[in-house]
Design goal:
Length: 195
Amino acid sequence: MLKPPPETLHPMHILAFLIRRAVQAVIVMFVISLIGFSIQDNLGDPLRELVGQSVSEAERQELRDQLGLNDPFLTQYIRFLGNAVQGDLGTSYFFKRPALDVIMDKFPATFELVIGAVVIFLSLSIPAGIYCAIHRNSWITRIIMTGSIIGISVPVFLTAIFMVWLFGVELGWLPAFGRGDTVTLPWGWDTGFLT
C-alpha cells in the first residue's frame, strides 16, 4: 500500500527552527566562554608568567591595575566579551603575544586536520549509508550500524588516543606527536599534506 506524501514544512516552521537554533548557539557560546574565562581566572597569578619573580611587589601591583586584574570577575568578563566581539581576544600570558596571533599560527594545521577528517568521514559514511539503505537486513548492515553506534557513543578523546596509538605508535604511518614535517606553499601556507 502506498503511503501519502509527507506534509511539506511551512516556511514559518523552518524560520522558527532556525531562530531556535541560533538562540541555542548563542547560549552555548556564552556558557563556554564563561567557563573558559572562569578556568583562566582560577589558574593562578598570570603575572608570574608575564614578568617572572624579579619584579617588586609595588611594580607587580601597578601592572595588575594596568591590566585590570584587580577588577571584579564580572567586570573582567564583560570587558573580555566586549573586546572579543571586536576581534581582540587579549594577550596570551604564556606566549606573551596576542591570543588571536597564537590561534592563527595553529589554524593551518587545524584546518588541514578538519579537511582530512571530513574527506575520510564522507568517503566512508556515504557508501556505507547507501549500502545499508539498499540491503537493510544483511549482516554487513548490522556490522556497519553497530560500528556507527559504537563510534557515536565513545567519547572523542578516547577515539583520538586510540587513533594516535594505532596509526602513530603501532603502524608508524603518522607522527605520534606534533605535526611532522611541513612544506611551505608559494602563498605562504605551511602544509603537512605533501610530506
